[in-house]
Amino acid sequence: MITHLRGELVRKDPTSAVIDVNGVGYEVAVSLTTCAELPEPGQRVEVLTHQYVREDRLELYGFTQARERELFQLLIGVSGIGPRLAQTILSGLTPAKLEDAIRSGRSQELKTIKGIGAKTAERVVLELREAMAPARVSAATAAAGSEGAPVASEAAMALAALGFSASAAARAAEKAVERLGPDASVQDVIRQALRER
């Protein structure tokens, strides 16, 4: 799994960039947000990546912000949203605006993006709203302060990668943190959630 690239930026355009890493050029698909944050060609750059593998292709998606990559991974977990459409969504709305629209249930903002119809926009809001709602932090997680929230968030992302829907992953991680307590590790929370599935 390729999780990041560090090297020289060879080329960038609104939808892709090429990064030379020790003589090997990697092409990564990028959103408009990431493209705007990339330096000029010829400069050193580091991007986080998501490797997408299908039997007929291998693609890399690049991000300058960890939160943008997290949102991308949540979006591709929504039924009917593939990596290209997720990248289009992240080009149409900044990560902060996308999170705000989902948390507030404003599916109409998603409908303004090319390729997103009413049903898809509503599905994104429905499936991801719970995963992003600050109110979903349980009493046990809140008691843990800033330590508990990242554990539950990391565990929820791992569970989503294991096949849980985004909302089910958030609920399972929250329940596991409540059961195990605020000092539980991410691995313990994931194991507990998998046992209770």
Give a description of the structure.
The structure is a single chain. The chain is an alpha+beta fold. It folds into 3 domains: 4-63, OB fold (Dihydrolipoamide Acetyltransferase, E2P), CATH 2.40.50; 66-132, 5' to 3' exonuclease, C-terminal subdomain (DNA polymerase, domain 1, Orthogonal Bundle); 135-195, no CATH class. 51% of the residues lie in helices and 20% in strands. It has 10 helices and 5 strands, in the order βββαββααααααααα. It has helices spanning 32-37, 66-76, 83-92, 95-104, 107-111, 118-132, 139-143, 148-161, 166-180, 186-195; strands at residues 4-13, 16-21, 24-29, 44-54, 57-63. Strands 3-2-1-4-5 form a 5-stranded antiparallel beta sheet, with helices on one face. Strand 4 and strand 5 form a beta hairpin. Helix 8 (148-161) crosses helix 9 (166-180) and helix 9 crosses helix 10 (186-195). The longest helix is centred in the middle third of the chain and has 15 residues, at 118-132. It is globular. The two termini are 26 Å apart. Residues 135-148 have low confidence and may be disordered.
Helical proportion? 40-55%
The total of helices stands at 10
Q: Classify the fold: give the CATH topology of the largest domain.
A: DNA polymerase, domain 1
Secondary structure: number of strands: 5
Mean pLDDT: 85
Strand order within the widest sheet?
A: 3-2-1-4-5
Give the CATH level 1 class of the largest domain: Mainly Alpha
**Low-confidence blocks of residues:** 135-148
Please tell me the CATH architecture of the largest domain by its name.
Orthogonal Bundle
CA distance, first residue to last residue: 26 Å
| Structural domains: how many | 3
Reading the helices and strands in chain order gives EEEHEEHHHHHHHHH
